[in-house]
Write a structure and sequence with these properties.
- By secondary structure, the chain is mainly alpha-helical.
- It has two domains: 11-297, no CATH class; 323-516, no CATH class.
- 81% of the residues lie in helices and 0% in strands.
- It has helices at residues 11-24, 30-60, 63-71, 75-83, 85-125, 132-137, 143-173, 178-198, 202-208, 214-226, 228-248, 256-285, 300-330, 335-366, 376-380, 383-404, 410-427, 433-470, 474-507, 509-516.
- Helix 3 (63-71) crosses helix 14 (335-366), helix 5 (85-125) crosses helix 12 and helix 16 runs antiparallel to helix 19 (474-507).
Amino acid sequence: MGSLSAKAVSFDDSLSRCYWTWRKNPATSVPTMLNSSLSIMVQAIFSIFGIMLLVKMQSDGILIQLLASLLNSDYQGLLRLVEEPFILNTLLSYLTPAIILSVIIFFLAAGFVYSAEYSSYVIALSGDNVKVETVMSRIRYKWRSMAWTHFLSSLISLGPIVIGTAVLLYTLSIQSFTVVGVSIFLLSIIPTCILSFSLIYTEIAVIKDCLTGLSAIRRSFNTVRRNWKISLTYALADLFLSGLFISAASLIPGAGLPLSSLVSIAVSFIVIPIMHLTKTSIYSDVADGKLESSYVIIYPSLLADVVKGLPTFLLHKFIAGLSALKSFIVGRNNIFYHLTSLLALIIGLAAGLEFGYSGFANDLLNAGYVPGRINPLVSSSIPVSLGLYIFLHNWQVSLATALSGIWFSVTPFVSIFVNGFILGSVYTLVPNFFMFAAAILPHGVIELPSFILAGSAGIRLGVFFYKFNKANDDKMNSEFYYVARQTIYLLIALALLFLIAGLIEANITPIIMHYAGWT
């Protein structure tokens, strides 16, 4: 890296530049969307192992004991049950492979995500346009190096707090030296924070400097050490903006739930891309010498754009999304994917019914569960507020479900299957079909088809990504880019359907449930 003067780089200039870079290239948000799909992939793995574990515990007569402790809030009794060798071995035999498989797949997929993300940022900061096609074309760039480097970086930065947590759990389990365990855990937070800060540029070094593993980690450490002021300014600003968004959700009474979900979306799709762009810009510009830190300045033009220009931009994207959703639904070539997603729901529903009637429903009833009662959250929440929360939560899940298909088509299939399994299991707990229909159908006639469409889009995305990797030719590349772009836009349009379903679920469904006999 060349040498720059101390005044060559300032944080506020980098932030402002990167905001406008993001506005010019909204596709730089796509990698953070892909990042959200990693959680669905992990959830799918744990869901499958979890269902198998429930079936095993139910057949062994363990489940009813655990359910009784949970329903009666007897957590000490629950802990004693879990500590029994037979139950503990049963839990470990299913949780251990789930954890190992999740870690392996997570870091492999993260290699693709971070390669697409920081490659796109470098391209955008160079002045070139970044489109969805650009992001997807860079998803394979140095992904192996990125996966390995990200794993090492996470291992180093999280190592101290993992050790501290292990010590704390051990002292709690033997009920001795608990104060020492708590102290070690609290102290472990300090090196974790220092290491996380020192390694903030690691993934960028993989792309920008073609480094791998410890070489990229050393480069990040040295860059932070030599330019700690502007690096610290960035880290504090990142924490400040995230904290500001999160705290805002608790300032408006009755609006905490929807604002929390809205904040999560805003942070994921707007704040993170802009801040990571800023981090990439700083790394690209800083010299070996220390730089002067500067205060964050919000320019009037930037604020005016957030208030006026950004909403208009989002409206145009939503209109484009409606067109993409219509084309996806009626496309003949997509019927197979729609039916496959529907099949996943039906199989899950059948499996849930079988599980419930095979003993789970009786175990839960014998443990003290009272059927026919509405969730207290519905009764205690402001209807409109709850409706917005349900909408935002379900839309986030559908978005992550669809995009998780890029890694494996089986992931959205499993996600839809699990939703069906839950529905089937719940049905066995409801006194009659009329009460079940009253609780599900008012909003479900919109919500379930929307989830099926999200699963269908995810399955199709996975198929085309597989073809994209297998046959690297212009025709296949173009088809994959088209499918990826259509998937992003149709997910934007699905927000409208989930909004309608969420408002119905919070405002109309409870009324119908009362008439049907729910209390």
